[in-house]
Amino acid sequence: MSAKGQQGRKPRADVQRNRAALLEAAQRHFLRAGVGASLEAVAKEAGVGPATLYRHFPTREALLAAVLQTRSEELVARQEDIALLGDASEALRQWLRALEEYFSAFSGLPEPLMAAVREREPDNPLTLPCDELIATTDEYVRAAQLAGHARPSVKGYDLYLAAVSVAWIKGSGATDEESLDRLRALIESGYREQDGEE
Amino acid sequence: MSAKGQQGRKPRADVQRNRAALLEAAQRHFLRAGVGASLEAVAKEAGVGPATLYRHFPTREALLAAVLQTRSEELVARQEDIALLGDASEALRQWLRALEEYFSAFSGLPEPLMAAVREREPDNPLTLPCDELIATTDEYVRAAQLAGHARPSVKGYDLYLAAVSVAWIKGSGATDEESLDRLRALIESGYREQDGEE
DNA sequence: ACCTGAACACCGTTCAAGT
DNA sequence: ACCTGAACACCGTTCAAGT
Q1: How far, CA to CA in Å, does A52 sit from each of A16, A22, A24, A46, B62?
Q2: Is B39 within 7 A of strand D by CB distance?
Q3: B150 class by beta-carbon count within 10 Å (0-12 exposed, 13-18 middle, 19+ buried)
Q4: Best CA proximity match to B170, nearest among B6, B34, B74
Q5: Which ranges of the sequence are annotated as binding DNA (chains A, B) (predicted)?
Q6: Residue A192 phi/psi, 5° resolution?
Q7: Cα–Cα distance between A168 and A73 in angstroms, integer?
Q8: What average pLDDT values come out for chain B (198 residues) when binned by 10 residues?
Q9: How many CB atoms lie within 10 A of CB B151?
């Protein structure tokens, strides 16, 4: 039972090349056609057969999660910048904007992200990153509440949902930036404590 | 040019039967499988060939719009009840809930509805109903604003978008009723005038 | 005028055969 | 151990042929 496939050994060179080519092709296609892009086309552009794609990424979600890895790292980096602010209210606001941008990486991305939270199956590779983002949002909310800048009834998950919603609307393309801004303002005045404006 | 197909004449009996059977089958499938349900399966259940479905409803949107007709009429009826309230603030709140229920008729419905608003092509049979709903929402918002119950910066379209969003989240199934209620409360305190609580 | 079912195209997924 | 391309299944859409 100990001589299975993926020991800590270096993967073969062509395996690494295939994986990299698949990720690059997938990102291009997700950008162009949204998360529902044809996997056949991705494999073709990466110069491999469809079965090779499935060997590397058994589900569309697995491929999506791998492509999103880079963006997640950007989000973590952003968190450090935000921490420097000091102001809990402004920190929460900026975090929500960063979340929204992350969700807007590809058109149609909010859908599988919500599904990942719904199913709560450990085999969905998107569940873990989502849970982390929800937890982080909750931390920002708590900090803002302690500083008197957010209503006590608001939870991190609520604002996570609000951010996904805005991203979904943005991705649907039915709306100009002005409407989005009004929607963001509406959400903001929804979670803010009225008096704590200093 | 005047002896075309659909004059005011009565359609043949089998045509009426087919149309009715298609609508019934479509509603069942949309309820079970969401708006992306297999049209092939719909035709099969209605006892007709796929081409007959396409003759009656050239696009998925056309079929969807026809199935939604009944629900739209329910919404209009609801409007009359709401008008009896007198209270502009409560009227707006109830209208938004009615909208949300309408959008939740089938899973995945928010998607094509947003697309209809985006494309603004007259051949999309969902565009007209959506535009009407937006206009109606705007009337409720204006009335609430006149009564001092809604912020002047809010537009009907904003709250229309908010209602679609809540329906989308509800339809994604990732969320319990409590979270939805908190989200609705957040939106409400977002558009309400703080002082005008009487 | 309307219907039918076969036909075509496209894509996700798997499997037998290669190296 | 990994790759390949053929094969299968499913579905949306159209077309030639019927009545």
Answers
A1: 12, 9, 15, 10, 40
A2: yes
A3: buried
A4: B34
A5: 38-57
A6: -75, 145
A7: 22
A8: 47 87 96 95 96 96 95 89 90 97 96 88 87 95 97 97 97 92 97 65
A9: 18
Q: Which of residues 12-31 of A touch strand D (CB under 7 A)?
A: 12, 14-15, 18
- Burial group, residue B41, by CB count within 10 angstroms (0-12, 13-18, 19+): middle
Give residue-wise pLDDT tens across range A32-87.
Answer: 999 999 999 999 999 999 999 999 999 999 999 999 998 998 898 899 899 888 89
Dihedral sign for Cα A190, A191, A192, A194, please.
Answer: positive
The Cα A170–Cα B72 span in angstroms is 26
C-alpha A141/C-alpha A155 separation (Å) is: 7
- Given a contact cutoff of 8 angstroms between Cβ atoms, the answer to whether B166 and B180 are in contact is yes
> Which residues are within 8 A (CB) of B55 and not within 5 positions of it... i.e. 6 or more apart?
none
Picking from B169, B182, B194, the nearest residue to A165 by CB comes out as B169
